Amino acid sequence: MITARAAATFEPVGRSVATARSFVRDTLQGWGFSDVVDDAVVLTSELVTNAVVHAGTAADVQCLRTDDAVRIEVSDHYPEREIPLQSSPATMGSPDREGGRGLQLCAALATRWGVDYTPTHKQVWFQLDLPDRPVGTRAAGPSLAPELLPLTDGRVRVAVVQIDRTGAISAWNEDAEELFGYVAEQVVGKPLTDFAAWPHTPGTSTGIADALQLSRWEGSYGIRDADGRVTPVYASHLRVRDTDGEPSTVCLLVRDDERAVLQTPLRGPAPEPGVLSEPGAPDSFEVFIGSPPPDDLDGLLQRTVERARDMLDGDAAFLLLATDDETELEVRASTGLPSARQRFARVPVEAGTGRYGSARMPAVHEDLTAVPDAVPLLKGTGMRSVVTVPLKVEGRLTGSLGVAAEIPDRYSNEEALRLQFAADRIALAVESARISELERLRRGSLSFLVEASDLLAGTLDRDQTLALMAQMTVPTLATWCAVYTIADQSSEPDLSYVLHEDEERIDGLKALLKKVSPPEPVPTPGARVWTAPSEAAHQSALRTSMRSLGLGEPMSTTAGIGTSLSTASAVGGETVVLPLVARNRVIGMLTLGKPSDEHFRQEILELAEDLSRRAALALDNARLYSERTAISQSLQRSLLPPGLPQVPGVEVDVIYRAAGEGNEVGGDFYDLFPIRDGAYGFAIGDVCGTGPEAAAVTGLARHALRLLAREGFGGPAVLERLNAAILDEGARSRFLTLLYGELWPQDDGSAILKIVCAGHPLPLRLRQDGTVEPYAEPQPLLGVMDDLELYEQTATLEPGDVLLCVTDGVTERREGTRMLGDDGLADVLTTCTGLTAGAVAARIMRAVERFATDAPSDDMAILAMRVPERQD
């Protein structure tokens, strides 16, 4: 039964694919189905691309929600187009084929999928089943002896916070006021997200807004109190509905160290018949296992180390998971150690000096000072004794669990057996959660790369590409990012862009990186560790601390102390460099960093490497486009007159618009230049066509006019010789309409004009009384016939008269079947009486632009000359 529906239609243009992805993502997240968002976005992207790009029609996307599944339907309007199916699913849509890969994804990711035809459209649909989420069912914990019950320090306060359907706080009890320092009036009506500090592991965690939409959720996060400190809390969220049917969420929160008040233990499996458990093992196991959500690997691991530490009464505990090739162990959770910062650090498994040799078998180290390299994770932590046990599934090493104490000889084989018993019970759950997390991360990575490619392909601007590269990595992949670019092989890397998730730290980070020599531009693929920033940050913080203690140069203010220490903590963790390689050349480096003592996961580095390859090609494309645009614009500008000369007694103004994006010069051109003895030549012309080919003839015509006019040739002779030059161009020649004239300002305030109009729209004369009339006679255009017999016409512009010359891009401006035409231009010109030449040109251009809504498809040039009235 369908319980909700959302639909949208997307036009057959490339940008519709990204819009469709956003529509599906927003719809499913709004329904609270975050578990299937990534798969749905990937499949929607493929199917909408097929509709709008390959089928070339609009795409109708419909999201249907049922109690246990989501169905998404994508329809195009080209039902005759063949579905690229092969003879069997095994051979369907070979990867080498251009089409069919979207259907392969449907077959791989969807629970069900299919194709429906109607006489007017073809519909491809897929269905994703929702994971089971029991509502309101929790397992009861075992009864425990009093000495095993958790301790509390004074009164236990349970904060009760109610959240309305918009995510805003609607109720806040007295215990919440005591815990966090806010009275109800300060928080009611504000979003919980303003106060929550939510942990985030890219690709694996659920946001707090998503958690509030779940029917039941339990876990840890932080609340920022009135003093700005983060109080770790353990929370239980329950979705409810009031008497009016309005949904809301009730949150119960306690301090994290009092989590036993809300946390419900999960009963472990019963021992196999006939098998006796170790003495005390069941009780230990029940306390150890806890009740994490089934897909919350981080919560499961953290709870595991805390239970292991408590079970053996240790000072610290840690858990490592094996990498995919099982040659290394990756730190995933710890408690009681300053090396919680070592999260995602890796240590080899093989035995030997400095190796984690005890990983495959339970081991007890009575005193680590005697074998300091036995457990590298504990070096420098003050721990003296440790017991470690392996996590194994079907004989494979999947991880290692350890408990440590600050005193030697703390543990014996008995504790090792107890810990091994617990590890055996938890190993399968951990491995299952790890595989689920890895699968979600990979699917999220695929969705991330699809959107990244779409964004990078959407711009050819270098600066915007650099900004997109950084914004896609921060904070999704890293805490901060710096992009270095290399102009050519002889250039040094240049720090081009810096971004930090905390905007207040960007300037300090940029200043620090400028003091550090840039990384070497090594073309070897993959991430490599770069220690220079963290070393420089620690040195800077050390010098700052010494100055603050009076052991060095005095500091003028205490602000410098905070800045240096803040920068040190911001870049004090692991920093990696990935080369940006495009067209077999290193064009830059992408640098990613973590805060103090944090490490990157291998999955994140692999995702960053994929992103760097896409970003490098986008950046190089932007560079090539910028270079070619700069060359094109420079050449085009050389075809325009350097500037209009001042003509005594005559106002002159020009407006020029070249058709086509990025064009500054087209087939239309103009010029005004001094000839001799107070005479000025002027011209306005139109070469057949637009773009670079027409601009080439424009350059020939403009320069030939100046040269011939200054050689003393009259108007007809100038145009006849220009006609011969155009015909000499052969196949590259284009016909040309041209209005050429000579202007002679007179002492009485008038101006004499000699004009030749070779196939060009006739100039218009506006008199002071508002009458408009043509000012010349039409003659043959240039570039068509060899022998031309042209003549010039002489006329006088009286004070107050205006001469308007335009190209046919003005008179042929169209809106549907309507055209401005010569009469429309004359009507506009009649309204320009008394205006200056600049105002006349501006009014004509404004009228032309308003005549039609579409962008002009032809070049336009307007030349206005006016003889001002004499001032008595």
TrEMBL record:
Species of the source: Streptomyces longispororuber
GO molecular function: phosphatase activity
Domain PAS, first and last residues per copy: 160-190
PANTHER family named among the record's database cross-references: STAGE II SPORULATION PROTEIN E, STAGE II SPORULATION PROTEIN E-RELATED
Name of this protein: PAS domain-containing protein
Keywords annotated in UniProt: Hydrolase
GO biological process: regulation of DNA-templated transcription
